[in-house]
């Protein structure tokens, strides 16, 4: 009788064992995916932090450039009344355009 029981157990294992095996396989797949996801999240956070630092530096640099440009324009505006003829004004206009071009090229 024992032999018959063992013969039937081979094609029909105890109930629940196949589900448990599938659960453990799926559980390890989920754990592997979670590890990959966590690694991806860490790399994205690191990249975002470096991008934030770079952006902050660029904002500071451009803010300084604009402030310098505004100071230069104030200087040009204050000296505008000292010109007496058209040639001086045209030379002055050329200087202002050059300063503007330098600012826009960097941006």
Features:
single chain; mainly alpha; 3 helices
Structure description:
- The protein is 85% helix and 0% strand.
- The chain has helices spanning 2-9, 17-78, 86-106.
- Helix 2 runs antiparallel to helix 3 (86-106).
- It contains three helices and no strands.
- With 107 residues, it is mainly α.
- The longest helix has 62 residues, at 17-78.
- The protein has one domain (15-106).
Overall number of strands: 0
Secondary-structure class: mainly alpha
User: What is the percentage of strand-forming residues?
Assistant: under 5%
Oligomeric form of this entry? single chain
Distance between the termini: 90 Å
Global outline? rod-shaped
Low-confidence stretches: none
Compute the gyration radius: what is it? 38 Å
Order of helices and strands, N to C?
A: HHH
Tally of contiguous helical segments? 3
What profile does the largest beta sheet have?
A: none
Please bin the fraction of helical residues.
over 70%
Look at the structure and give the mean pLDDT: 81
Q: What count of domains describes the coordinates? A: 1
Strand and helix layout:
Layout: H1 2-9, H2 17-78, H3 86-106
Helix pairs in contact: 2-3
Structure at a glance:
The chain has one domain. 85% of the residues lie in helices and 0% in strands.
């Amino acid at each position: 009788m024992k032999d018959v029981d063992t013969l039937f157990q081979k094609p029909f294992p105890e109930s629940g064992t196949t589900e448990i095996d599938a659960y453990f396989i799926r559980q390890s797949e989920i754990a592997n995916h979670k590890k990959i996801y966590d690694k991806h999240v860490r790399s994205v956070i690191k990249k975002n932090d470096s991008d934030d630092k770079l952006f902050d530096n660029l904002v500071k640099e451009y803010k300084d450039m604009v402030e310098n440009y505004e100071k230069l324009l104030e200087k040009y505006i204050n000296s505008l009344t000292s010109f007496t003829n058209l040639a001086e004004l045209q030379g002055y206009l050329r200087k202002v355009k050059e300063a503007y071009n330098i600012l826009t090229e960097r941006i």
